[in-house]
């Protein structure tokens, strides 16, 4: 299977990604309603649980906006967030901080906290209107890819400006560069699930260290506009 990932061609990638984008577009037809402030998910996010799971807000911010190298969660799809919690709990996504927290949550609590963050508003990425050339490595990979190496543009799945598409492809704009780089290296190392059709492992393995740093810096540096509607809950996916 991994060998087939390495030989992914432009037509085969586009066929696979198009199918996923159609599902994502369908799931985006309706937006999630903001969760009640006193919901079970909100209580977990702000106060943790009696059996020892700490409050998510301690690392991810009071509004899911992220702090330091911890990613923002607000407006990310519920199915994606739930899938990641399950992967942490089951050990298929490796992380020394998140694994014990996810294991301390019951399946119902994972769903509750995922629904809470999915219902919060997130800032929308401002469009990148600058003229870009191949020398601008991060922007070029993000918006054009490198098809000579079979490397698709990030924007083909994650949307213009890294805004995210449905729940299969989460937003990238404004995420910490260190976090984005860490995830790409985790896919390279097989330390997190490859996602729908194994796309992210195949993409990450085509990136060199300078590519990873450049594209991570690009998305981290994208300006954010004011509030936008949160991603819809629904299909499973990958960041």
Features:
single chain; 239 residues; mainly alpha; Cytochrome Bc1 Complex, Chain D, domain 2; 12 helices; globular; disordered N terminus
Count structural domains.
1
Largest sheet, spatial ordering of strands = 1-2
Label the overall shape.
globular
The first-level CATH class is given as Mainly Alpha
> CATH-wise, what's the superfamily?
Cytochrome c-like domain
- How much helix is in the residues? 40-55%
What profile does the largest beta sheet have? Answer: 2 strands, antiparallel
Beta-strand proportion: under 5%
Q: Provide the residue-averaged pLDDT.
A: 82
What is the strand tally?
Answer: 2
Give the second-level CATH assignment, the architecture: Orthogonal Bundle
* CATH fold-type name: Cytochrome Bc1 Complex, Chain D, domain 2
Written as H for each helix and E for each strand, in order along the chain, the element string is: HHHHHHHEHHHHHE
Calculate the terminal CA-CA distance, rounded to whole Å. 21 Å
Instruction: Give the low-confidence spans.
Output: 1-8, 17-33, 224-230, 232-237
């Amino acid at each position: 299977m991994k060998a087939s990932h390495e030989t992914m061609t432009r037509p085969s990638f586009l066929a696979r990604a198009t199918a996923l984008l159609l599902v994502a577009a369908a799931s985006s037809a309706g937006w999630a309603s903001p969760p009640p402030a006193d919901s079970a998910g909100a209580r977990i996010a702000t106060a943790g649980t009696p059996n020892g799971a700490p409050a998510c807000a301690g690392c991810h911010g009071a509004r899911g906006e992220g702090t330091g190298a911890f990613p923002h969660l607000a407006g990310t799809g519920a199915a994606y967030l739930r899938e990641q919690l399950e992967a942490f709990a089951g050990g298929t996504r490796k992380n020394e901080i998140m694994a014990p927290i996810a294991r301390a949550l019951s399946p119902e609590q994972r769903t509750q906290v995922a629904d809470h963050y999915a219902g919060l508003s997130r800032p929308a990425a401002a469009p990148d209107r600058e003229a870009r050339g191949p020398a601008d490595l991060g922007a070029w990979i993000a918006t054009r890819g490198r098809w000579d190496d079979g490397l698709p543009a990030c924007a083909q799945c994650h949307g213009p400006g890294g805004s995210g598409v449905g729940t299969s492809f989460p937003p990238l704009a404004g995420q910490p560069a260190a976090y984005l780089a860490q995830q790409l290296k985790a896919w390279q190392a097989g330390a997190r699930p490859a996602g729908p059709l194994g796309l992210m492992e195949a993409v990450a393995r085509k990136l060199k260290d300078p590519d990873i740093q450049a594209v991570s810096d690009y998305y981290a540096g994208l300006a954010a506009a004011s509030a936008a509607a949160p991603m819809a809950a629904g299909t499973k996916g990958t960041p």
